[in-house]
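New to this. Explain the following:
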Amino acid sequence: MKIGIEVQRLFRKKKFGIEISSLELIKKLRDIEPAHEFVIFAKNDEDRACLETSGNVKIKLVAGKMFADFEQFFLPLAVRREGVDILHCTGNTTPYFCSAPIVQTLHDVIFMDDISETDSYYQRFGNHYRRRMVPIVTPRSEIVITVSEYEKERIIQRLGIADQKIHVVYNGLDEKRFYPRPYDSHVSVKRKYDLPEDFILFLGNASFRKNADRVIEAYVQYSRKSDNPMALVAPGLTQDFIINKLSKYKFPFDKQKFITPGYILDQDLSSIYGLSKIFLFPSISEGFGMPVIEAMACGSPVITSNTSSMPEIAGNAAILIDPASASSIADALLSLSGNESLRLHKIDKGFSNATRFNWTASAEKVLSLYDRVLKRVQNPQTTAAFLRKEYSTSKR
């Protein structure tokens, strides 16, 4: 089978959730199924070394300046030229016209919710594009993959897609990167980012969904109640952002307490998790929440939200909080930082929970879905997906 996999921003240097999870999936597919040929469609960018052409992997660079021209014009042309049997689109949207049957990974439908005006122009443009395209293209896909049972229900409710068309495939964990290591192995990373001995780690950025405003408010409350508050390390925030938010609470900015090292390189992330005393992930909404299991696997106790997919992914290993309540977050920080027995208990639970997620199982399930699609389209009695009614009879 010749399988096309689209990851538009795979080669960008600063990778985020879609690129990271897609890269791990591709590597595992390559290794466990050498008989298949995988053609990777992506834009050219700085990090070409993250995936190279090998025996059963071919890299096909595709032109395009924005989401739309890459996906709707240049990608279908490249797919036709390569003659792939199936195209797997990993970034939520797909081409409207395509010569190959499509498997679509729809990580979440958060973009269907209200779009915050505080998000960047790039973020808002992306959300508006997905909001318009997903309801149009998703019914035409042969199979839709999503990353949690929570998100599957949301897709059914928001798009009216039939239950049997949607398949949950959890993201996996790269056990070679995320595992507990001795403190000595972290020393160079600690020095590189100028980190304190004890700190709370918050990886979210300034977008509304990541809940940074509430994090700052909660940290102020925590600091005022704690005799020795730990520093907050926030790679995704700027000093100006934090200072602006602190002014609302008349709380002074201290560069020893608010540390903003900037983007964390992939190879350093596991050490940052391992060094942190608490990992804070109070997101408003997540389709999966990959950082939760990464932090657990590295030995950091997790505080995360009691909403969306987080309880499903975190199991009983995290302290669950109300992300809309700064007091709820602050109380959890106080509880974990002031009770070493509880902290160690959650670390132990986290190690166990993280073992539920692995890329081998995920890749095997994805391969079975590819096989299902190929059998369906090769059956001459099967009608093309975009000519069938794929909507459920009710939108629940």
Notes: The chain is about 40% helix and 15% strand. Residues 1 and 348 are 42 Å apart (CA to CA).
